[in-house]
Amino acid sequence: MATDPLPNALLPSRRGPSFGFLVSSPIIALATICLIAVIASAIFAPWLTSHDPQLLVPANRLKPAGGEFLLGTDAYGRDLFARILYGGRISLLVGLGSAIISIVIGLFIGLVSGFFRYVDAVMMRIMDGLMAIPSILLAIAVVSLSGASLTTVLIAITIPEVPRVARLVRSVVLSAREEPYVEAAISLGSSLPKIMWKHLMPNTIAPLIVQGTYVAAAAILTEAILSFLGAGISPEVPSWGNIMAEGRQYFQIKPSLIFWPGLLLSIAILSVNLIGDAARDALDPRMKQREAGK
Fold first, then answer.
1. What total of structural domains would you count in the chain?
2. For the whole model, what pTM was predicted?
3. Which domain CATH number covers 35?
């Protein structure tokens, strides 16, 4: 059967999501600035400090802030400021990587499960089984079996997030597949990849942007928890969780060993969550309708 183009009236809107919500209020604008500052400090760490974050200098251990060392040194004589900057790279990389991987995998599973009912019955039971396991325990189990490394931690944190993304996409697809433009595309004989790519996937973009922010924030926090518990990446590799784990023994002597990485961790997670809330309010049509009705 020939595949004629759909009438414009039956097609969904192709306009991409607007990112004006990033400055929609003073609080959100401040959160955006803080997040950009944290990301920039991690990217430009080599230019912001000349110290090696992994260089052990016992003679400089636990030095106070000031002079050569802006925030002082840790128990091994390493520059705390340098370790925090470079540690942001690991934490942010885990957050961004987990969000991207979980969205890609969850998008595929959600599209297939939402469109094919016989696949949905099996796939969603698997997703329900994964969601029944506490994410921290599952991550600890994966790291314990595979060994501590950045790749292992990234996989361990991503696995529990995939079912949440898949169920979100599935719910959107179940609703969108009943729309007239999708039924028209099927009746006109459009290929399955075309239906998925052009008619179903655009409906998932806005929800995935919102979900991606929450996944990133949760992944950053989970990585810090795993590292703090000694189940994350190798202790010598700087990450905010590792820095706090090493500093807890000296908290009474030098609280800054935990305070500064904890502050950066809190700012990053709070900023991402605030941006996620703003994205939800801006991109969710139901939220817009409720605001318009007030």
1. 1
2. 0.81
3. 1.10.3720.10
